[in-house]
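Hello,

Our lab assistant flagged a job as stuck in the queue for most of the afternoon. It eventually completed. Since we weren't sure the result was trustworthy after the delay, we are filing this so someone can double-check. Below is the sequence as submitted and the structure that was eventually returned. Let us know if re-running is recommended.
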Amino acid sequence: MSDEHPTTPDPTDAGPTGAEPTSGPRTAPRWLRAVGAPLRRVRPRRPRARTVLLGTLAVLVAVVTGVTTASAQLSFGPHEARYDVTTDATVTVDLGPIGTLQIDSPLPLWLGARVTVEEIPADVDALHGVDTLQALTGDLNSYLQFFTGPQATIEDAARALVADAALRAVVTLAVLLVVWFTVRGLLGAARRHELGARVRPHARQLVAGGVAVALVGTLVTASEHGRARARVVSAPSSAVFDGTPLEGARVTGRLGGIVDTYGGLVVQAFRENEEFYDQADESLVAAWADWEDRRPAVEAEAAAAPTASPTDGGAPGTDPQEPGTQEPGTQEPTADASPSDSPSASASPTRDEADEPVTFLLISDLHCNVGMAPLIASLATMSGAAAVLDAGDTTMNGTSVEQYCVSTFARAIPDGVDLITAPGNHDSAETTAQYARAGAVVLDGSVIDVHGMRLLGDHDPKATRLIQTQTQEESYSAVGTRLADVACSDPDGVDVVMFHNPRAAPNMLADGCVPALLSGHMHTRTDPEQIGQGIRYISSSTAGAQENEPRIGPLKGTAEMTLLRWDPTTRRIVDWQLVEIGTDASATVRDPQAWPVPVPDPDPEADADDPGAGTPAPDITETPGG
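-- returned structure --
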């Protein structure tokens, strides 16, 4: 039966095509071979392993090339400097013929960096009228400031090197791909197959040779790395740097003698600087805790005070239009407060949380004193500030090498707290752009919304470089008029203007479109006062800047910061609170003071041609270096 005895194909069967009979049980019928002939002409797809291997190799080559050739042009203290990635596991600061400073690299694998220190830009010192000793003193101050806050420079350098390495890797990979496809196209399929056939028998030898080359390269690199490490380790570490960020650093060349001779003075200054600001920060924390203890009594006394008239301002929160003295987030009135004593206090428990006063921290004239950065951060955190308002002059001379200043200040701001700045006359377009890249919002003559507050501002039109004023593109009266026009034409209105120089106040505050102006520049505080139809406040220097005194190191004058509470319901500043840091590292948190209410102009038409005539602005004497 057919089921038990399978039929064996007949070798004499010629098949439907009439071709010669086939032999053997494994030979397909002629008709099947005829159908499959076209399929046999199609070459089977080769495995993709080779393509994946070549792609991985190309990516690896591109990454290695990008990383090992990355470079960046930044700053190092007062110098311009070139940063290059190396493979000796060492960070080397090359000071040319003077020698080098070497520290172990924190980078992974064998990666290190070489910092080639270049010249100090001429515009850093603006040497017109500055003698050599003054210039060198300024340079030493810049070095001290750099080593006080090196993290910003390190982070900026790391970001720049990573960006450059990524760019170089992408370019290298693109070049490899272009070369690969160009060669493939020029050779053509037939030639590639011919070359492949010739190479295929020698594939094992080629792979072995490639592995050998890679091993030799690795050994040579490791040997060079070992020799470099031996050279580095052979240089003794300098005890001068013990207890500083450069602890364990090794010094070569003539720099060793300079460091041994004068390094102790610099390190001593560094330690004094660190100790001063650490103590000041501790004092600030303690002073704020003391304020928190006495705040209920202060608020109760303010709530019980008689209602103030617009002419005197009164105690905090006593004006009927003010929201009271509760801090943001508080809902209960103080124990001594009475609904009959304070309308604002009695209304506060029913206020929506979103309508609670918003706290802003005002700073000004930092002039690169990065020692104050931790204190600004501490006060912003403790006060619950929604934003830090920087009224300008963040740098000394607006040069590219001052990037570490703006980066340090911007990165010190706590997460979730906005940073807004109105550049001053000592800032520049370059440092302002660096500030913006670090996270600051730069006012540019338009209105922005900051936690509900409509804020307007712009940069100072004057460019001052130490003792030399280079340009002034616009007069202050013109700036005041321009910003007042912007405020008057804005359909939602403007609540506050921040502008560095207070000289713009008369024209800016003349018609009442600007309720409040926040300024700096003078290095001397002027309490809130009415100018025209608005209120002007001049902040003192947050760096304790004094005339003819360096702006870095321990404070030479009292540093001031101001807390402002702004009410989103009335769209007015409620009160201002002064925080002072003394030259002895002490800290004082003053009681809040009510923000004055402007006195209406009885005859605005009479003053139309004389801005600010109703309440003339006091004479302002320009502060040298302000």
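-- support follow-up --
The delay was a queue issue, not a problem with the job. The result is valid. The two ends are 115 Å apart (CA to CA). The longest strand covers residues 572-581.
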